[in-house]
Amino acid sequence: MKLPIWLRLYFLFVLIQAVLVGSAIIQPPWITVVLPWDASPLNARFIAALYLMGAISALLCMIAARYAEVRISLIEIGFVTGVLLLITVPHFSEFTPQNFPYRWTIFYTIDPLVSALILWRLRGNAPPAGRNPLAPLFLTYSAVLGVAGVILLVAPALAASLWPWALPPILGQVYSAFFLTFALGGVLAAREPDWAGGRVYVLANLGMLLLIVGVSIWHFDRFKPGPTTWAWYALCLAGVVGFGRALLRRPGRRFTQGAVA
């Protein structure tokens, strides 16, 4: 199915939101424009890198040719914004009318609802499930992020004690929303029958990981000494290598029943 113009406009709306938060990678104080909680420069830049993954995805989806190329991103948008809203609701009592996160709440109420409506509207255009030759990469990535995301969500204090830099528990839960979303995206990408269905996922995660490595090097002095820090850098670099190889291995090619078409 050819991508309709109204869907491209929705991705433009998502792109603007993601760039608004992602701009904090340049100036960390800008994170307060949207984020309801305070964040150190390292945490602000890390959150910005996560949002810029969404910006890369939205931009690629805007110029995509077919619905099959954007379906995973659409699911991810609805999932991450819905989880962020659910994380925020229990904290509403902590805010006053003056500092209540109105913009955050409005956006993250609209986005999951619109994403769900679009997915329902285009439900008959999803490609048949298959097995992508890059499935081992996607599923390994999903497993690592899924485990980390669950710990960050249900045991944020424990996660903060294990994290390689100072992490307030509430920001750990914000991270969890993204980690779980990327894990879900990996599972979906592993079931895509062709390269086009996973292309945006590969490019967006590669871009995000490169940004995270850059942020981590820039703020190396904020990392705790010990094995968790070295494990962090090792996992990030492994992700860069894995997605980089995936991009070089299958640029623009389609898969058919697990073989190159």
Brief rundown of the structure:
With 261 residues, the chain is an all-alpha fold.
Walk me through what this model shows.
- The protein is mainly alpha-helical and 261 residues long.
- The chain has one domain (5-260).
- It contains nine helices and two strands.
- The chain has a two-stranded antiparallel sheet.
- A hairpin with a 2-residue loop joins strand 1 (255-256) and strand 2 (259-260).
- Helix 3 runs antiparallel to helix 7 (169-190) and helix 5 (135-154) packs across helix 6.
Question: What brief labels describe this structure?
Answer:
9 helices; mainly alpha; 261 residues; 2 strands; two-stranded antiparallel ribbon; disordered C terminus; 67% helix
Radius of gyration: 18 Å
Strand content: under 5%
- Gross geometry: globular
Q: What is the terminal-to-terminal distance?
A: 20 Å
Poorly predicted ranges:
254-261
Helix tally? Answer: 9
Mean pLDDT score: 91
Described by strand count, sense and barrel closure, the largest sheet is: 2 strands, antiparallel
Instruction: Please bin the fraction of helical residues.
Output: 55-70%
SS-derived structural category: mainly alpha
Order of helices and strands: HHHHHHHHHEE
Total domains:
1
In spatial order, strands of the major sheet run 1-2
Number of strands: 2
